[in-house]
Amino acid sequence: xxxxxxxxxxxxxxxxxxxxxxxxxxxxxxxxxxxxxxxxxxxxxxxxxxxxxxxxxxxxxxxxxxxxxxxxxxxxxxxxxxxxxxxxxxxxxxxxxxxxxxxxxxxxxxxxxxxxxxxxxxxxxxxxxxxxxxxxxxxxxxxxxxxxxxxxxxxxxxxxxxxxxxxxxxxxxxxxxxxxxxxxxxxxxxxxxxxxxxxxxxxxxxxxxxxxxxxxxxxxxxxxxxxxxxxxxxxxxxxxxxxx
Length: 244
What we know:
mainly alpha, 244 residues
């Protein structure tokens, strides 16, 4: 199977699989009446927008920012409602405006509704620099969230705070590298998706009124698969760009 055909069928799998699971999960939970209908429907809609955004991103399509606008807005609100304050603030204060900045940056690099973005790679020096930025940012955000959660120290597990901080810093760097069309963004997106699956799984385990969180576990599981494919695609695109 050639690369183009593989990408086509992989995208169908991600979009079809996510849609099927979201519809089935939402329908079951609505029938059971375990959670608010509006919350479930909004969470499902936001998740579908997010999957469309990540599929477009993996394939270097500028429409990623249109779908991403809806995804990050809904997800940010849901995070605050679930007391995941780091990710909530990140999505509403950073990701939301970055959708517009990213759209502008991609347009400058030749992206359109028909043409993909010209992809590039970080130099060895830049990779070391971003690695140091990641470690410093992780330490700073972790201790900040730990301080903000002092009143809940008896109920908040430090590992959960670490995962929130890890996801937050990976999101910040990943979005910046995505908006400037660097291949290395996908390393951080893979980290985000692993941390997010763990974080939302912990939310389900720790609360009896968080059935909608299952939607986000499924969402980030599909995101993880898509991010692995995105890394594969952008490795090829960046390699091709270096030889043109």
